[in-house]
Amino acid sequence: MEISSPYQEKQVSLQEAVGRIRSNQTVCVAMAGAEPPGLLAALAGERDRLHNVTLWTCLPMRAYDILLKPEMEGHFFNENWFYGAPDRKVHPEGRVSYTPNNLHLAAADKLIATKNHVDVFIGTATPPDKRGFMSLSLGNVYEKEMITVADLVILEINENLPWTFGDTQVHISDVDLLVENHVPLVELPAEAPSEVEQAIGGHIAELIEDGSTLQLGIGGIPNAIASFLTNRKDLGLHTEMFVDGMVDLYEAGIVTNRRKTLHHGKMIATFALGSQKLYDFIDRNVSLEILRGRYVNDPYVVGQNYKMISVNTAIQVDVLGQVCSQSIGTRQFSGTGGQLDTHRGAQLSEGGRGIIALRSTAKNGTISTIVPTLAPGSGVTVPSQDVDTIVTEFGVAELRGRCVRDRMAALIKVAHPNFRDWIREEAHTLGIVPDKRFYTGG
Ligand code: COA
């Protein structure tokens, strides 16, 4: 008699797997590069059978019917931690709603709201090793935390996923159902930085000393920094997101992690997203550990790194120093993610700094991103009392510990020249900085 393995016993088709999901249940979906494309497509096919299913998603990468199609109304509702392109598109139709969060507490907050209950978790993993362990590969922001709580755990096995180390391993015995779907990975190709991004990258690189540990956020600017760090020595990485620029820094011998005061000798991240080059680099790479978001992004953990430099990107900054990185006025664009986590953490570090980088203008130079007041309805990502350093292509504005009048002066210097007078005059008219001497140069 042939004895079946635990893998074979749990292996089902995509249709069988989603057939276990019921109306009125909550389904937590792994994020970004770790999202399960086969299960999400199959679940959309169950539309007629299912009503009032809530999805918890974060930065969905592909154009899924389940998120996009109007006929999903009443069948699936998307509660989202960080908007991606599908969410931005669907938001006006009302089938998605943003869940405000700081990334390191995203799972914890949801579990408080639901009294520690999630019905189903769907995600991706590598095929198991000979001992039955699989790697969650590209993401451990909330995935492992949810696997331990969910009533039903379904993993989509994809042999193209890199095997990552750290806390990404799950055992077959922790999983209920397995489906195989060996599809190409979602890629975020690294784009060449623009001239403005390069100028910003150059200013930021000046603030990074030998031996610093870096966190680089999402967007074009963080990748631009790498090319200006060629003369630095012994940098370390403790970052929310592992991106292509970091591969270059490691391969050039600039990131060595040798002077790290926490996780000495290792790069630490909580998810990875980029090109195939990045995925090849992180596969079975012992120098990188993907740990839980609750740990990696905890400001008190981030702050234990010596000379911790956190770089994130923004949409608008006002003269108080309030930073909006997640919405364009009332329009939800992305999310807070770990921006406030790492910005705060860096300021707790000895010799550390929280940097917010942005282009001085948007929409082909027609609007200033440095503004007297944030646009009505903007989500504040970094409150004024947490802000530290703002960088544009025109230079560096150090705001930490400074009064609003001086913050405004520093911000005007890094605003685009076409908008400097407007910022000053508006702030005066609105009474934000009424000090008349300031306007006469006295
Ligand atoms: N007013 C109006 N529109 C603006 C604007 C402003 N002040 N600033 C930017 N925009 C528009 C751009 O024109 C662009 O629009 P488009 O998509 O129609 O072209 C869009 O907003 C995105 O701007 P861009 O500067 O190209 O984005 P980016 O890819 O560099 O990302 C953030 C910047 C801020 C959106 C991104 O970093 C983010 O979501 N951050 C929040 C979370 C975070 O930092 N987490 C921690 C790190 S993982």
Summarize the structure in words.
The protein is α/β, with parallel strands linked by helices. It is 27% helix and 21% strand. The protein contains 17 helices and 27 strands. Strands 4-3-2-1-5-7-10 form a seven-stranded parallel sheet. It has a six-stranded mixed sheet with strand order 12-11-17-22-26-27. The longest helix is centred in the middle third of the chain and has 12 residues, at 195-206. The radius of gyration is 23 Å and the shape is globular. The site of coenzyme A (COA) has 24 residues, from strand 17.
Q: Could you provide a short overview of the structure?
A:
With 442 residues, the protein is of the alpha/beta class.
Tally of DSSP helical segments: 17
Low-pLDDT segments: none
Overall residue-averaged pLDDT value: 96
Strand % is 15-25%
> How are the strands of the biggest sheet laid out side by side?
4-3-2-1-5-7-10
What are the bound molecules? coenzyme A
| Rg over alpha carbons | 23 Å
For the report, how would you describe the main beta sheet?
7 strands, parallel
Work out the number of β strands: 27
Structural class of the helices, strands and pairings? alpha/beta
Q: Give the terminus-to-terminus CA distance.
A: 94 Å
Shape: globular
Helical residue percent band: 25-40%
What order do the helices and strands come in, and which of them pair?
Layout: H1 6-10, H2 14-18, E1 26-29, H3 37-44, E2 53-57, H4 65-68, E3 76-80, H5 85-90, E4 96-98, H6 106-113, E5 120-125, E6 133-135, H7 143-147, E7 152-157, E8 165-166, E9 169-171, E10 177-180, H8 195-206, E11 213-216, H9 220-225, E12 236-237, E13 241-242, H10 244-251, E14 267-269, E15 271-272, H11 276-282, E16 288-290, H12 293-296, H13 299-302, E17 308-313, E18 316-318, E19 323-324, E20 327-328, E21 331-332, H14 339-348, E22 353-357, E23 361-362, E24 367-368, E25 370-371, E26 389-392, E27 395-398, H15 404-414, H16 420-429, H17 436-440
Parallel strand pairs: 1-2, 1-5, 2-3, 3-4, 5-7, 7-10, 8-16, 11-12, 11-17, 13-15, 14-16, 17-22, 18-25, 22-26
Antiparallel strand pairs: 6-9, 18-19, 20-21, 23-24, 26-27
This protein binds coenzyme A.
